[in-house]
Amino acid sequence: MPNVTLQYTANLAHAFDPAALLGRVHQAFADTGEFEMADVKGRAFQIDTFQVGLNESPEKSFVQVTVATMTTRSAELKQRLGKAIVAVLQETFRGQFDGVTCQLRVEIVPIDPAFYFAG
User: Fold this and answer.
1) Does domain 3-115 have CATH number 3.40.50.2300?
2) Which Gene3D superfamilies does the UniProt entry name for this protein (predicted)?
């Protein structure tokens, strides 16, 4: 734990290397000094079918990083981590859009340890 899910719209597939971006996101975790890195698990998914707003427009896109972590982590740590990941996204996608409007988002969702099971 934690789990990192990177989702991005198909019209951004040419703009970046998902494996490299996951590596940079994992580095943001390492930089906090608060996580056992062997426990941080990341995965990336390209979204082929998507819609932003009311129109199915090829000029609109998004990148969403969702971090699921235990509720026992402090709010201050989660805020620092979220801001660091947003900075990674901004740096990664700076100048990459060629007329495509892209929304960059990070969401940190709580996992209640009472309902988390691992084998």
Assistant:
1) no
2) Macrophage Migration Inhibitory Factor
Is residue 39 a contact partner of residue 73, using CB atoms and an 8 Å limit?
no
Name residue 54's amino acid.
L
The CA distance from 66 to 78, in Å, is: 12
Ordered by start, the domain boundaries in the chain are: 3-115
In this prediction, residue 52 carries a pLDDT of: 86
**pTM given for the model:** 0.91
- For residues 108 and 78, is the Cβ–Cβ distance under 8 A? yes
- Around Cβ 65, how many Cβ atoms within 10 Å? 25
The whole-number average pLDDT for the span 62-87 is 96
Q: How far is it, in rounded angstroms, from Cα 29 to Cα 22?
A: 11
